[in-house]
Amino acid sequence: MNTVCLWTKNFIALLLSNALLFAGFHILLPTLPLYAAANGATGSQIGVITGIFGISAIFIRLFTDYGVRVFGKKNCLYIGLLISFLCTLGYIVFNSVEGLIVTRLFHGLGFGLTTTFSAAIAADIIPTVRRGEGIGYFGLGSTVAMALTPAAGVWLIASYGFNTMFLFSALGTGFALLATKMCKIKREAIFEQKETLKISLIDKLFEKGTGLPAFLTVLFGVSYGSINTYVVMLAKEANIADAGYFFMVGTLFVFMSRPIGGRVLDSKGAAWVILPGSVFLLSGLIVLVNTSSFHMLLGAAVLYGLGGGFLLPALLTWMLNTVKKERQSAASATFYNMLDVGTSAGAVLLGSIAEKTGFIHMYKYSAAAMLLFLIVFISQSLLQKIGSGKVQKQAKQDKELDELSDFS
Q1: CA 263, CA 140: separation in Å to the nearest integer?
Q2: Is 384 left (phi over 0), alpha (psi -120 to 50) or beta?
Q3: Angle CA(54)–CA(323)–CA(215) in degrees, nearest 5?
Q4: Closest listed residue to residue 163, CA positions, set 100, 104, 90
Q5: For the chain, is the Cβ count within 10 Å smaller at the N or the C terminus?
Q6: Alpha-carbon separation of residue 24 from 15, 118, 141, 149, 243 (angstroms)
Q7: Terminus-to-terminus CA distance in the chain, angstroms?
């Protein structure tokens, strides 16, 4: 039994902060397009308003190394939360199309900072031997927010109007700031060494050594994001009512899978979590392609919850473990960059495919991305195993030759 303490005051405060941040964020996902349309935005303008968020989040992560050297991790997290808080209130004031685009751009900058440094600080305070388990618990708050707050946002609009909804979103981010204040971190855990070498744009986007997990995170983002974005449209196309239960069931199985996956990752390694997780998610997508009833939809939700619950924290932990401690902020930025690239590009591409094939058949292409994920991971694992076997064989031969030489 592992006796190293995970549930410290710092970890609980940071977990709570992350959960509140994502609650404030996810409440806006289904409601902001409605708000933009109510203020005269066309379909293409709504696309710009939603899409520019991810672009600005990726952009700001290119400068996280500089931010750490100048301000430190926790101060960068404070800055991101403050920007997010002000921008959420800004939607009420700057409600023209142009105003929403600019506000959304700055909100993306704030969100890019918060997600990067929240995960990086979590990696600092979670004991190394329990990192997989800790990252799994750390992400549960965002999962719950994704499942519950979009529906809450729609209800707030219907009952009290847009302004009240924005105030609740801002409150979530404001309380995240207070929770972050409760997280005490030693100075040496905040500031990283100053680097003398210049870092290229590619190296800022992809931290060295994270190539394989970064590529797999993009593919995961395409498939996972397609479920979050279009599953309600699929249910409507298949004449299935009460599609909201999909996310409730999926969240339940994420809760069940993350602690288990984290412990397995810490004890046996990433492959023992990523392989079954990818099979679960691929199976869920295949079920969605063939969904014709409410029960099949819930079955897909179970597989979606197990797959996402295993894969998302495992990919982040894998990426953090591939770099040195002083590069974990950059690795965290890489993870969220690749996740944003996958979800954003996937949503646009799969949405255009759905216009021609319908949402049900569109999921064949989403499943293809997950199948490619599985093929690449298995192929790489086999190559590494073969390479490791050759190294061990050569070492054995060298040892035998040395012994023979000594005997001679």
Answers
A1: 15
A2: alpha
A3: 45
A4: 90
A5: N
A6: 14, 15, 12, 8, 23
A7: 50
User: What tens digit of pLDDT does each residue of 129-155 get?
Assistant: 887 778 778 877 777 777 678 778 878
Of 254, 261, 222, give the one whose Cα is nearest residue 133: 261
pLDDT digits (tens, 9 = 90+) for 321-339: 888 877 777 787 788 788 8
Q: Do 153 and 34 meet the contact criterion of CB atoms below 8 Å apart?
A: no
Q: Which two tokens stand for residue 248?
A: 């409730």
Q: Which residues, including other chains, have CB under 8 Å from residue 401's CB and lie 6 or more apart?
A: none
Q: How many CB atoms lie within 10 A of CB 311?
A: 26
What CA dihedral angle connects 262, 264, 269 and 272, to 10 degrees? -110
d(CA 166, CA 67): 29
Residues, the chain: 408
Q: What pTM value is reported for the model?
A: 0.68
The Cα–Cα gap between 253 and 303 comes to: 8
CA distance 367 to 354: 14
Instruction: Tokens 């239960």: give the residue.
Output: 245
| Interval 33-44: pLDDT, tens | 778 888 988 766
In 39-161, which residue ranges form alpha helices assigned H by DSSP? 43-61, 64-71, 73-93, 97-125, 131-138, 140-160
* Token pair for 187: 């100075």
Task: Report the pLDDT averaged over residues 311-329.
Answer: 83
Q: What Rg, from alpha-carbon coordinates, does the chain have?
A: 22
Tokens of 75: 């101060």
Burial class for 84, CB neighbours closer than 10 Å (0-12, 13-18, 19+): buried
DSSP state of 1: -
Distances from the Cα of 37 to the Cαs of 42, 103, 123, in angstroms? Answer: 7, 16, 40
> For residue 176, what are its two tokens?
């995240």
Q: Is 387 exposed, middle or buried (0-12, 13-18, 19+ CB in 10 A)?
A: exposed
How far is Cα 405 from Cα 397, in angstroms, rounded to an integer?
Answer: 12
Write down the residue that tokens 């203020």 correspond to: 39
Contact by Cβ (8 Å): 235, 363: no
